[in-house]
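Summary of Year 1 activities. Much of the first year was spent building the evaluation harness for sequence design. The harness presents a backbone, in tokenized form, and records the residue chosen at every position. We chose the following record to illustrate the format because it has been used consistently in internal testing since the harness was completed.
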């Protein structure tokens, strides 16, 4: 199955041609292009929904056109491209941004007479783990857990941690499409917490990657920030208290570079500790074979590294673990360019959860969540 996927839920405009079948271990990217309106939002220190929607309008056709050209597919109504369907993000997200992608997909569906596969953006993030890592795309990134040529199937059941700018959720994935929501944030998402702390420290937007960079020069033990809900008997999160603690730490102070770096490293460590502890707790409770990371925050190298070492310690400490370990949990994180918003992950989600519809039955849903 070959599909055109479109993602426009927030500040990225992305199109991809992906190919695969539900029985494949991963889908293949034939072409993938993403335009970002980040430079516009950096000036305002955050995303203004109307500005994001205007940028979507500007980018959507050039991005789709370039993607079809990269895949050697035609763009005309007389000669529709050789595609089985169009996948598009219908939510959650900003309504203005979503509408641009969805209405474009509906128009192409009408002109080309191709069905539409509606995709939940959050499920898209999960399926970034099911995108093959081709040589060309690997060049854009650094470390990764699964080599491209010997790509093994992800073993189920799996726990997925979705950590993005708008969401922090723990999901039990029993099999493809069998999704159970276990818990989520009660206030700020992990990415939102990074962004708000970044703003307090006057770092450029988005805070996440800039805090990660600053943290490299800081001492993560310098400030003992709270780890909200780390020991709670559920799979929920809360990050607003951490942001308030950072505010107290920086308020009315003139901090030097080293002190700022210490705050970045300490706050980042507090976020990571909570995310890992809760994920491992869920992995133990549901006796899973894999842990998958997804969403923009999954691009954080320190988070990826600490996950790997924590899973190793967790396996060793288990009665089934140790030298003759019978307990083995695979850890998987998408390549970094597939962690932040992109259309390839939307295409992958569509292939593994294929529900073809007529353009007449497609509507945006900015509040869409896990069922
Ligand atoms: O998934 P995404 O691109 O958009 C949403 O669906 O929200 O995630 C964006 C979020 C932002 O909050 C950004 O600060 C965070 O991901 N992020 C990071 C890193 N790269 C992006 N957070 C921590 N470390 C990073 N390297
Ligand atoms: Zn996202």
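For this record, the design step produced the sequence shown next.
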């Amino acid at each position: 199955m070959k599909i055109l996927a479109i993602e426009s839920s927030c500040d990225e405009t992305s199109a991809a041609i992906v190919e695969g079948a539900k029985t494949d271990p991963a889908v293949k990217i034939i072409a993938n292009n993403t335009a970002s309106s980040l430079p516009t939002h950096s000036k305002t220190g955050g995303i203004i929904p109307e500005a994001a929607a205007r940028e979507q309008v500007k980018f959507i056709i050039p991005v789709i056109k370039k993607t079809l050209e990269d895949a050697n597919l035609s763009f005309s109504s007389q000669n529709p491209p050789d595609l089985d369907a169009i996948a598009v993000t219908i939510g959650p997200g900003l309504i203005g941004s979503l509408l641009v992608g969805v209405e474009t997909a509906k128009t192409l569906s009408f002109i080309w007479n191709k069905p539409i596969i509606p995709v939940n953006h959050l499920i898209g993030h999960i399926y970034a783990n099911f995108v093959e890592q081709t040589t060309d795309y690997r060049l854009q990134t650094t470390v990764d857990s699964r080599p491209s040529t010997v790509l093994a199937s992800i073993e189920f059941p799996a726990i997925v941690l979705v950590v993005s700018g708008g969401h922090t959720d723990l999901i039990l994935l029993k099999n493809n499409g069998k999704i159970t929501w276990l818990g989520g944030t009660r206030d700020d998402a992990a990415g939102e917490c990074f962004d708000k702390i970044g703003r307090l420290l006057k770092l450029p937007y988005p805070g996440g990657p800039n805090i990660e960079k600053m943290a490299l020069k800081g001492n993560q033990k310098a400030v003992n920030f709270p780890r909200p809900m780390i020991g709670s008997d559920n799979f929920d999160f809360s990050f607003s208290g951490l942001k308030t603690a950072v505010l107290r730490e920086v308020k009315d102070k003139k901090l030097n570079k080293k002190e700022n770096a210490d705050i970045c490293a300490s706050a980042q460590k507090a976020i990571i500790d909570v995310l890992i502890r809760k994920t491992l707790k869920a992995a133990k409770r549901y006796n899973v074979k894999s842990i998958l990371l997804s969403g923009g925050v999954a691009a954080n190298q320190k988070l990826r590294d600490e996950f790997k070492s924590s899973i190793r310690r967790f396996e060793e400490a288990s009665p089934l673990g140790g030298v003759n370990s019978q307990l083995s949990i695979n850890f998987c994180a998408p390549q970094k360019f597939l962690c932040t918003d992109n259309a390839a992950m939307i295409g992958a989600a569509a292939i593994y959860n294929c529900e073809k519809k007529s353009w007449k039955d497609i509507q945006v849903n900015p509040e869409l969540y896990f069922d």
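Residues 10, 164-166, 191, 194-195, 206-209, 212, 295-297, 299-300, 340-341 surround KG4 (ligand 1) (CB under 6 Å). Quantitative recovery figures across the full test set are reported in Table 2.
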